Amino acid sequence: MYNIKQATLHDYPRIMEIWESAVLATHDFLKKKDFELFKQLIPSEFLPQLQVFVLEQNKQIDAFFSVSDDNLEMLFVHDEARGKGLGTQAVTYVVEILKILKVDVNEQNPRAIGFYEKVGYKKVGRSQVDGMGKPYPLVHFEFQKV
Question: What CATH number is given for 3-143 in this structure?
C-alpha cells in the first residue's frame, strides 16, 4: 500500500516524469506540439492552482493526482508502476476522503475510460473539445455508489 500525501514544489520534477511516462504510454492521439505545451503549462500554470497529491512508497513517488473543488483533474501513474493498484487507491482516496465524484477523461484514451468505468464511474456527458479548446473530446464521468 502506498502512502498518499500532499505534494510539495520539491515533488514537481518527479510528478512531471510520471506525467511524461504515462502520457507517452497512453496518449498516442496527442499532437507533439500539444504535448510540449502541456509539459510547460502543467508545473507552472495548472498544478499551482490545484490540490496535488502523490502516492509514495519507500521514498519513491510512482503516481500523482490533482483535484479542484469538485473534480478529479489529473491522475497519472508512471508507466513502470501501472497495474499495481495505484489508480484504484487514488480514486478511493478521492471519492471517500475528498468526496470528489467527477472526472473528465479523454475520449481517445480507451484504457482510461475502461479504468474509470471499472472503478465505479458512469458517463454523464461529453464535450467536443478539452478545457483549453483543443480538439480532444472529453467524456464526463461521475462516480456512482454501488
Answer: 3.40.630.30
